[in-house]
Amino acid sequence: MKQDNILVIGANGQIGAVLTEALREAYGTDHVLATDIRAAETATPGPFEILDACNGAALNEIVRRWRITQIYHLAAILSARGEENPLWAWNLNMTSWLNVLKTSLDNGVAKVFYPSSIAVFGPDAVKQNTPQDAVLIPTTVYGISKVAGENWANYYHHKYGLDVRSLRYPGIIGYQSDPGGGTTDYAVHIYHYAVKGEPYECFLRADTALPMLYMPDAIRATLELMEAPAQNLSVRTSYNLAGMTFTPAEVAASIQKYLPDFQVRYQPDARQKIADSWPASIDDSRARHDWGWMPQYNLDAMTRDMLQHLGERYGRKVGG
Predict the structure, then answer these.
(1) Is the pLDDT of residue 320 over 60?
(2) For residue range 172-208, what is the model confidence (pLDDT) as tens digits?
(3) pLDDT tens, position by position, 110-169
(4) What is the dihedral angle through the alpha carbons of 222, 227, 232, 238, rounded to the nearest 10 degrees?
């Protein structure tokens, strides 16, 4: 059986760092090449190279030299950062993705993973249980680029037969790495402040409900999708993916079960407008039907796990 050689682009990011580790456990450390535009502050075991995915020649050289069979393209400018410099965000997000598609086709790469986002939905989409085929008119450059990226994935699959697979991630929460400038980042930051014993100033309203997913579920969903038989997949743009929905007030209350003195102050900023344009909950029935997706964590289970791991990181025992 041919051994897969896997390329992770954007391996130092919030999802990339954890996904790279999971892929190395599954395929072997030496068969997963981590790349990013700069080296990580803390090196992890396994091969790493500097790569600017906007440089098509450099990407092509790495794919050829490593005989890459799968690419996970995670490099992107997220929602909040993207609004600070829209044209820069569009150029990076789209140029890098088109380079990945062309290089994959030219070199016979077997599978490609593209992370999309709930940012593809805009204010015209149904807010509750947003369906797979909802209207996509986003109000951020990040969302616009993700819609375009989904359509390019679909195009390359149907025109050239390239096996591109994608998930619309909700907000991702994890203790392993820092978030990268998204509108749902509060749901990571709030746990760090709580464990450190500091009050938290939240940039969204207390009642802002958004879809979220715990990192272990996000990584498992990604691997399960990539391992699913191609004939089972009915979506070649990007699958809706859901885990849980909660508000800042609800996650604060969940934390206060273990840290009753924890305090949160709400000071909405420009990110509130972005959050208001997104769904409150997601219908992921197609993912459940096609490849058996099922989340394992709810809010309280996630809170227990987050507080335990962050307590170890900061040297503070949390809970009983």
Answers:
(1) no
(2) 999 987 777 788 899 999 999 999 999 999 999 999 9
(3) 999 999 999 999 999 999 999 999 999 999 999 999 999 999 999 999 999 999 999 999
(4) 30
Residues 37 and 72 in one domain: yes
The pLDDT of residue 1: 39
Catalytic site residue 155?
A: no
Using CB atoms within 10 Å of the CB of residue 220, give its burial: 0 to 12 exposed, 13 to 18 middle, 19+ buried: middle
Catalytic residue among 142, 175, 258, 266: 142
- Classify strands 210-214 and 244-246 as parallel, antiparallel or unpaired: antiparallel
Domain membership of residue 79 (yes or no) is yes
Is residue 100 within 8 Å of 112, Cβ to Cβ? yes
User: In CATH, what number is assigned to the domain containing residue 293?
Assistant: 3.90.25.10
Summarize pLDDT for 203-256 with one digit per residue, the tens: 999 999 999 999 999 999 999 999 999 999 999 999 999 999 999 999 999 999
CB 175 within 8 A of CB 194: no
Number of H helices, E strands in the chain: 11, 12
Domain count, the chain: 2
